[in-house]
Amino acid sequence: MTQLMTEQSQPAFDDDVVLLTVPADGGYLGVLRTATAGLAARLHFALDEIEDLRIAVDEACAMLLAVAVRDAELCCRFAVTDDALTVEVTVPTVRGARLPAESSFAWKVLTALTTAASAEATGTSATIRLLTRRTAP
């Protein structure tokens, strides 16, 4: 089941948050790529920036799918501000799961395609955060 929910976060930040949950299956990554592109377009990102962000989200999700428990769901949180899009993807993980090292090719892709990338693994879940700021026109 795919869920889409929009909520206003704290008024002090005046940003929009979109939550999207899909099955942790490669067949559903297109939904996340499309949502990413739509939100980036809303921020008037350049076409190259939109494509870079789509690739980064796809790569982050692929990393998480590799450590996800069976029948898990990918939870994706998009935070939209005036000049940036933050994408946070979380999945429940198998015991002892490790994400690729920051020196790996996958992380080099993420850091090359975004303004900032970070990850956190708690033992029961893993989260990858991507921040992309729009370049000045």
From TrEMBL:
Domain of life: Bacteria
Annotated protein name in UniProt: Serine/threonine-protein kinase RsbW
